[in-house]
Design goal:
The chain is of the alpha+beta class. It has three domains: 81 residues, no CATH class; 78 residues, Fe-S cluster assembly (FSCA) (GMP Synthetase, Chain A, domain 3); 110 residues, Rieske [2Fe-2S] iron-sulphur domain (Rieske Iron-sulfur Protein). Helix content is 37%, strand content 25%. It is built from six helices and 13 strands. The strands form three sheets. Strands 4, 5, 6, 7, 8, 12 and 13 form a seven-stranded antiparallel β-sheet that branches. Strand 6 and strand 7 form a beta hairpin. Helix 2 crosses helix 3. The longest helix has 31 residues. It is elongated.
């Protein structure tokens, strides 16, 4: 005779316990206001006592390296983690903070018939996937950086790379991307380079049809700009690139490499050229 599945038994017991708590809370909901205040004060006093006991226990365990390691292992249990989080004994996990950040952006995506899901966390990187109307939409590139990237990096500064994946099980190599700058552009597409020729978080300078351009790859977004500062037209390729921003090596004007916006003088911007990425092939359509 096989041994019982204790995991299943424990999960069933937990479900029953949660159901019992919800049933009792529903009863409280029909009580008079004064009665609810008394029970709420009682509940809060019990929780405060439990929280203080747990904090003292954790402080004691942290002293012993072996006990600390055992405690960290115990936190992998969803019930242990949930209770300690409820009492603010432990800080929210990275996965919880990432999910909260994505949840904050979902109403905006939902208003356009889309959604976003977390695919994988491998610090310092995560992978996300757009769904619904956001999947395959050229404008999703801007949505990705303006919304999701900002929300995640604000909540989780240890995440420095956010990749957008496509399809049911693919990765960045399956990317099919046309930059928003391409929507109204005219002219022929020119072969630029291979996608993996452009360094992640960096830039690559090229000459296409006699025009000097600056290619950038920030996460899943590839952009192309005229290799000329909007200030005095100086070449930018010697500038420092950090966190998606390039600084002109001559007069230190800063530009956002996802949009071309000048952060130093907002009234100017880099001249953008249309980009499309198909697999590992990058093509550019020069603007007039």
């Amino acid at each position: 005779m096989n041994a019982p599945d204790t995991t299943l038994l424990n999960r069933n017991d937990l479900t029953a316990l949660v159901g019992e708590i919800e049933r009792i809370e529903a009863i409280f909901g029909h009580w008079e206001e004064n009665q609810r205040r008394v029970i709420e004060a009682y509940r809060q006093a019990i929780e405060d006592l439990q929280g203080e006991a747990l904090r003292r226990l954790v402080r004691a365990l942290k002293i012993d390296p072996a006990a600390r390691a055992a405690m960290l292992d115990a936190l992998q249990d969803e019930v242990v983690y949930a209770v300690l989080r409820h009492h603010n004994v432990v800080k929210p996990s990275l996965s919880e903070r990432v999910e909260e950040a994505l949840e904050s952006i979902r109403p905006m995506l939902g208003s356009h018939g889309g959604n976003v899901e977390l695919v994988r966390i491998e610090p310092p990187a995560i992978e996300i996937r757009f769904m619904g109307a956001c999947d395959g939409c050229p404008a999703s590139a801007l949505t990705f950086y303006a919304g999701v990237k900002k929300a995640v990096e604000s909540a989780c500064p240890e995440i420095t790379s956010i990749m957008q994946v496509k399809g049911l099980g693919g990765g960045a190599e399956n990317l099919r991307f046309v930059s928003p700058f391409a929507l109204d552009a005219e002219g022929s597409w020119h072969w630029a380079c291979r996608l993996d020729d452009i360094p992640h978080g960096g830039v690559k300078t090229l000459e296409i049809a006699g025009t000097g351009v600056l290619m950038s790859r920030q996460g899943a977004i590839v952009t192309c700009f005229q290799n000329a500062c909007a200030h005095f037209g100086m070449a930018l390729d010697g500038g420092v690139v950090e966190n998606g921003i390039i600084t002109c090596p001559y007069h230190h004007f800063e530009y956002d490499l996802t949009s071309g916006e000048c952060l130093t003088a907002p009234e100017v911007a880099l001249q953008a050229h249309a980009v499309r990425v198909i697999g590992n092939r990058v093509e550019v359509r020069l603007s007039q």
